[in-house]
Amino acid sequence: xxxxxxxxxxxxxxxxxxxxxxxxxxxxAGAESDESQVKSLVVxxxxxDIEKELESATLAAAxxxxxxxxxxxKEEAPKEEKHxxxxxxxxALFG
Length: 95
What we know:
Layout: H1 2-13, H2 19-29, H3 35-45, H4 50-68, H5 77-94
Helix pairs in contact: 1-2
């Protein structure tokens, strides 16, 4: 995950996402880096429009959030029924 963050940081700074730059960012952050993972990431990002991918990821992540924040309906009736049932039970005890 650190490798991806380093790549995003380089992209945001307008720097070239290369093995050397990724290794420098990871070293500066004090993160352990696996050279094969860094190479794999650099190869997989060749020809990818990172800005476009970030925009589409942001839109996809924002869509479900709106559905989650919909107000929930309160149901008062079940609480009242439980209260009435409890009262009936008490009246049976005390006649």
